[in-house]
Amino acid sequence: MTSSTTLFWYRRDLRLQDNAGLFHALKENPDVLPVFVFDTVILDKLDDRDDARVTFIHQSLEILKTQLEALGSSLLVLHGDPVTLYAKFNPKAVYANHDYEPYARERDAQVSSILQKKGIPFKTFKDQVIFEKSEVVKDDGSPYTVFTPYSRKWKATLSPLHLKQYPTEKHFSNFLKTKTLPFPTLEHLGFTPSFIDFPERVVKRTIIEKYDLQRDFPALRGTTRLSVHLRFGTVSIRKLAQLGMQKNTTWLNELIWREFYQMILWHFPQVQEHSFKPAYDRIAWRNDPQEFEAWCEGKTGYPIVDAGMRELNATGFMHNRVRMITASFLTKHLLIDWRWGEAYFAKKLLDYDLAANNGGWQWAAGSGCDAAPYFRVFNPQLQTEKFDKEMAYIKKWVPEFESEKYPRPIVDHAFARERVLRVFKNALG
Questions:
Q1: Each residue of 40-72: pLDDT tens digit?
Q2: Does residue 313 carry a catalytic annotation?
Q3: Cα 213 to Cα 62, 204, 208, 243, 346, distances in angstroms
Q4: Which of 177, 187, 230 is nearest to 34 (CA)?
């Protein structure tokens, strides 16, 4: 690397095509070297050394590196604290795409300050969402806190320009020509390979077309499984939003929900630790460790709940309808703090995204913006009858549910519903 080299810093955008920051880096500079940092500030907090997400990132970077080498360039992969690393670099400029999580904002501010003192530009761009920050707000400039009016404004604001893809391939000749650069193994990074099967990086249009009819039935392949690819940017949000506009409004709405929660986290970063509605921090959670362990292991005696938790533990995925059921069960039936469940999902989900995970859990608990009211308590049996009537999903993940080996329900539904209504009412006045 020399002072004439421009760095493009990959984060949540692990692709060559239709990449905003990469497009601008290549268009405006010769000798662009892509770089990825395995961030030890993040990695050191992971409990499992076979964390599937690290393997997914590693595999995605291998694909990128192969593509770059076919263009005569390579990928610089580093391991450490990005702030410390950038303090040692003196490139011509650094380009990246925006990240909206509190840690990322703090990290980028520190990197920007370090580079600025050295006279090095740090340019960042919108890439992982269609609309960010305050681009979709109320007429008075305040952020929306209810999804439906936000989604209406989102759609009203949308123009063909917002969905236009960035033609990065027109400027591939501006990648730095270099020999193959070293690529660390997972073991070098302190991890071991995960053998979880990752969803294909394939956009299945037939699923999108039937999404509104099939999305709520966990036994069906009714969802695209693209969430992990959206999370790490191996697919383009603009391409997916275009498909949603063309094929299925219900599927498009799910993409808008994702941006709604990103916007909430941007404007209200306190939700990372606290309830969006402060009154909900007064709830007297029971937080029974044994009951929490039973929930984590899928041994609650409620088959639809247990099926979801076992699917999560085995695959890193859980169907969205079942995510709502399991989250409602933990917070309402067991009266366990939503933060416990959120942290467990954060540990296990392949597609873990702070904004969406936090938003979903606070929705289930009733403490979030646009949340289910506290008196809405999902009945697992009714949910099963409605969405897994033939019990195909349950039979797959809880084959012993009709045998003596299956545990009795950890709590009675009617009792749990009455208890949670009393506790929430007392806390909320």
A1: 999 999 999 999 999 999 999 999 999 999 999
A2: no
A3: 37, 15, 10, 17, 29
A4: 177
Q: Is 257 a known active-site residue?
A: yes
Annotated active-site residue in 257, 266, 295, 363: 257
Contact partners, residue 142, CB within 8 Å, separation at least 6: none
Task: Establish whether 256 is an annotated binding residue.
Answer: yes
Taken in order of first residue, the domains within the chain and their CATH numbers are 6-127 (3.40.50.620), 129-165+199-267 (1.25.40.80), 278-428 (1.10.579.10)
- 62 labelled ligand-binding: no
DSSP class per residue in 103-131: HHHHHHHHHHHHHHHTT--EEEE--S-SS
316-369 pLDDT per residue, tens? 999 999 999 999 999 999 999 999 999 999 999 999 999 999 999 999 999 999
Residue 72 structure tokens: 């005569």
Q: What is the largest CA-CA distance in the chain?
A: 70
Give the CA distances from residue 3 to residues 91, 94, 119, 172, 197, in Å, rounded to whole numbers and listed in that order: 5, 11, 11, 20, 42
Residue 74, marked binder: no
Say which of 9, 340, 361, 397 is annotated catalytic: 361
Asked whether residue 154 is marked as a ligand-binding residue, the answer is no
Residue 222 corresponds to which tokens in the numbers above?
């009714």
Q: Please name which of 129, 124, 86 lies closest in space to residue 105, comparing C-alpha atoms.
A: 124
Decide if 9 is catalytic.
no
Does 361 participate in catalysis according to the annotation? yes
- Distance separating alpha carbons of residues 176 and 167, to the nearest angstrom: 18
408 is in an annotated binding site: no
Q: Is 338 a catalytic residue?
A: yes
Residue 268: CB partners within 8 Å, gap ≥ 6? 143, 276, 369
- Cα 81 from chain centre: 22
